[in-house]
């Protein structure tokens, strides 16, 4: 039976079109069968403000993985969770680490069986997923015009649904929505208002009443209360006609949201829950609780996005527009064949290609290589708004 013999971790820093550089780790797991699985620890450039030492991380992961059979997914994931535990925090870096390893294990197992990852996950129910492009948060009214330019550009590329980060400057949010409705009419939909835990539920409720007068096909309200404020989510859910969505970042947190009937839609992303194995479990838990799901994102590169496309195309309870458009936000990537977007849909890689269906490009890995995951001179303001502009 196949055994794991080695592990490689490659740190890369790739700029977004905004100028902000996001750091990711590309994973390679080698085996005695000559097969290599690839994965992605996506976007470490998030709060909390600490960085992971890659040398120490590799040694720790090797102590878990070396000699293991990659098909022992549940056993390996349990040991990974014991060493990189859930913390009830959105951007816990342990979840990013578990996600990268679990993705690579799925790639390995599917390659060994000569099938695609989606078939390894149980087979496809669709070939593509409707996705939206993010419009990042307005700080100033002057930023409205540049965000309208983003809508114009992306609409020309086939993206007709957008997710709007809101809550920092409501006057600017209103101006943007008014201008979108005036210029684009029914050609453009705003899928969600994403508060990203900025406001308490009462302030979010007041903001929702201001913003929902612009009828642009709104599907949901996202994260309209502080993290883990389950009572606040429930109270807001009682007071608005729009579905409430929240990310799943631990099974304990998901259990509390189900128990308190706090939300309508679970936002599930492998990077936040710790891999494809955990994301499947969270999706099945949502189905048992009669909740819809949407596939979330931390803006992955093509390796991580391919894993999400395989997952999304294998799930039956995705009934809303999803979020994975990460590769469209970056000026480059580290693969030979990027994931495909067409007419606002993310397509799963060719089912006849085994594994994730993505191949790394050695020259691009070298081009974007960075020595570590340190923060350098990045400010908290830049982190929150994903921009290189240091204006506060």
TrEMBL record:
InterPro entries linked to this entry: DgoD-like, Enolase-like_C_sf, Enolase-like_N, Enolase_C-like, Galactarate_dehydratase_2, Mandelate_racemase_C, Mandelate_racemase_N_dom
Metal-binding listed as a keyword: yes
Keyword Metal-binding: yes
A Pfam family that the UniProt record links to this protein: MR_MLE_C
PANTHER family linked to this entry: D-GALACTONATE DEHYDRATASE-RELATED, ENOLASE SUPERFAMILY MEMBER DDB_G0284701
Record family assignment: Belongs to the mandelate racemase/muconate lactonizing enzyme family.
Protein name: Dipeptide epimerase
Organism: Oceanobacillus kimchii
